[in-house]
Amino acid sequence: MSLDTRVAVAIRGVRTASGVPVNRRGGAGPSDDGHVRLGGRGAALPIDPTSPYLVRDGRLLRSAGCGDDDAEEAWVDTGLEAVAVARPRFYDLVTADGVRYDQLARLHGADVLATTVVQTCIRYAEDQRCRFCSIEESLRAGATTAVKRPEQLAEVAEAAVRLDGVRQVVMTTGTSNGRDRGARHVARCVRAVKEAVPGLPVQVQVEPPEDLGALAELRDAGADSLGIHVESLDDDVRRRWMPGKATVSLERYREAWSEGVRLFGRNQVSTYLILGLGEDPDELVTGAAELAAMGVYPFVVPFRPIAGTLAVDVDGARPPAPEVLADVTARVAADLRGRGMLSSGQKAGCAACGACSALQAAGA
To answer: For the chain, what is the domain count?
Structure first.
């Protein structure tokens, strides 16, 4: 898969002839999307009926620009296999106390089970909220539950592995008031899943805890890798886009990343860097290299507005230009390759999955 094609569908999205059974709307981000196997890899792509790309009959087609979308000659085969991810069988199950499995965890990409263990966040007041996040909107819509119990997630994980071939788990959480910032409940959930499905890789995602000892508790519970997501390394961008999280200093993030690398190992800690929030692209590339030098994988993703977020409702923000995303992705990937830090070396998590980023298409 060429980087240009992967970037183009990341920004322009795809249209589909038969729908996308596995999709995501709202939540903590990073995007509203449909899940497709593209060139054999999981890809989370915007579904847009005006896109110049079409998924049909197992192929990714590109518009020939003739103006008649119904004509066979209107579409050119890109040479890529493209198949919508099938609806997982575990979605049809219900816990003994009546909670649908898909309210507890969702399929992401091709084979990742993802859950937000606490669906509320202390930073969700409008003057504190991350402007790209709608973590509590899916809760208000009844699509999920406020707090997932460890035994519930263990039950879902066992079924997802057995019925649908899930190969890894991602656990994230809204930030809590405690000094652990919610990490200890995540640890209890990890321990339960590991007991139910020994050997199933799990990534945990938390805000830097005030008590860094909580990171050791996550490792001791069995977590394989760690995500501590900063989204931007530019303090001006942070104050505008994530005013609540911006009160946690970048120095504190660096302390947490360093402790994470010490506990989990090089290339087992990652952070999101969102391109399109206003940060200078060259500075983002430089910052990504500094993170990689620490042993932290910089997971570069494009900004894509999510329905219900302040970015849509207030800012009217737009994704980055495809050529900017391609350039930044290529440069970050080259640096990662030079350091031997590849997504294939991640045991679990967003970088290991790669569906929301073009880095894997760039060889990282």
So the answer is: 1
